[in-house]
Amino acid sequence: MSRILPAGGVEFEFTVPVVVIGGGAAGMVAALAAHERGAGVLVLERDALPQGSTALSAGLIPAPGTRWQRAAGIEDSPQRFAADVIAKAKGEPDPAAVARVAQAVGPALEWLADRYGLPFSVVDNFSYPGHSARRMHGLPSRSGAELIDRLRGAVEAAGIDVLCEAHVTALYADGPLVRGVEITRPDGSLERVGCGALVLACNGYGGNRALVRHHVPELAEALYFGHPGNQGDALLWGEALGAATRHLSGHQGHGSVAHPAGILVTWATITEGGVQVNAEGRRFSNEAQGYSEQAAVVLRQPDGIAWTVFDERIAGIARQFEDFRQAEAMGAVLTADSPVELAGLMKIDPGILSATLAEVDRLKAAGGTDGFGRDFAGSALLAPPYRAVRVTGALFHTQGGLVVDDAARVLDARGAPLPNLYAAGGAACGVSGAKASGYLSGNGLLTAVALGRIAGTAAAGVMKEERSQ
Ligand SMILES: Cc1cc2nc3c(=O)[nH]c(=O)nc-3n(C[C@H](O)[C@H](O)[C@H](O)COP(=O)(O)OP(=O)(O)OC[C@H]3O[C@@H](n4cnc5c(N)ncnc54)[C@H](O)[C@@H]3O)c2cc1C
């Protein structure tokens, strides 16, 4: 469906200076930025209501040096954040690309707060793996649904047109110059809209099983937990137009999705001192490395299943997340006064689980590192009542994509920008490198918000330059 058609002779019903494909965080932020620069903007979204993976996320965005951090006494800087991103991905991402988003994201959040009333606050009561400062920012419910609802509200209040049930099925181009898009409506009818500049904000290819099998074979059969409409259209169009792509195997997995409830169980359950055991009641990994790489690790356990085990203190922290509250409401979070009772509820060997948890207690008390390399120093002992959730590993979204420059322009294989094509969010190559382990918490919305603003601003700028010539 993601075709490139010749533009010659095509009559567009109308032409809009900036067309944005995709109504997730990247698309909505790009639309706001382009509109502010005075451009006419049209957002095209295949669903009846714009939500995307953004709505499925926890809506947490890492940003350094913000006023919310300063108010909480948290020291941070774009350089420090960039160093964390690069360290997590073991030096794989382009330092310039990392610096670009690390510098842009803080001002972008403050802009969204000041101009559009998004009430961000910083998560200051727990740390995410790999972040050397507490820099995750979220809205009051800590949910992506609230993030996309508020962004959509801002777009609507600004008078920006959002066309829903508008599935872009082809681009019209003259060589690398995009002239317009073909929209397929639910009844199969086609519409053709011309564009001055095109922003690809239609995320990656997580929903396209064939592309996942090709690029991320270890998660080929994993549950896909992202938005099904993300079929890799940006990647396929970009490739057909001669765009450079990078790190296509990069992705965010997650090793703690409640199963079968299908609800994300926050990784705070681990970072605060919880552990994962398999169906035998034994630990099998250094869980603290990160939730992304843990997806494939959990899937290698019997039946692709693990149990995340923690306690009431940690549940109290996790409860700030809507997802966790839902998991509890659905009865997915077991509770028991002792490891033996917990094992009974989990239907696993009580002796093995008790021994596993006793060993974890011993390591914590001694401040030791286990055989998997997890350092338990400073970690509080688990105390009754204990909690456990049955989880599996899932693919959340892909991180590789189209290579962009400082203005979010899509680059060709020689590093030259395509004339009027921009990419943001999951459509663009992220900053996680080529492996799941390279994903630092928040890298997804980082490039959605930071690159979205850059892309929208630059796409509107192209139109201004053209008008003044
Ligand atoms: C469960 C879960 C939790 C997550 N938690 C976090 C988190 O806390 N922090 C974080 O940083 N990241 C998180 N992520 C990742 C984050 O959700 C994504 O990185 C981010 O939402 C990407 O934004 P986007 O705008 O690029 O894509 P999306 O929000 O997916 O939006 C893309 C939109 O494009 C539309 N579209 C696709 N193709 C077409 C087409 N051809 N025509 C028209 N429309 C089209 C789709 O319908 C969709 O609405 C999480 C992801 C998941 C799945």
Automatic annotation (TrEMBL):
UniProtKB keywords: FAD, Flavoprotein, Oxidoreductase
Domain FAD-dependent oxidoreductase 2 FAD-binding: start-end pairs: 18-437
Sample GO molecular function, one term: succinate dehydrogenase (quinone) activity
Cofactor(s) it depends on: FAD
Presence of the UniProt keyword Secreted in the record: no
Entry EC number(s): 1.3.5.1
UniProt KW Oxidoreductase keyword: yes
InterPro entries: FAD-dep_OxRdtase_2_FAD-bd, FAD-oxidoreductase_2, FAD/NAD-bd_sf, Succ_DH/fumarate_Rdtase_cat_sf
Record's protein name: Fumarate reductase flavoprotein subunit
Taxonomic source organism: Azospirillum picis
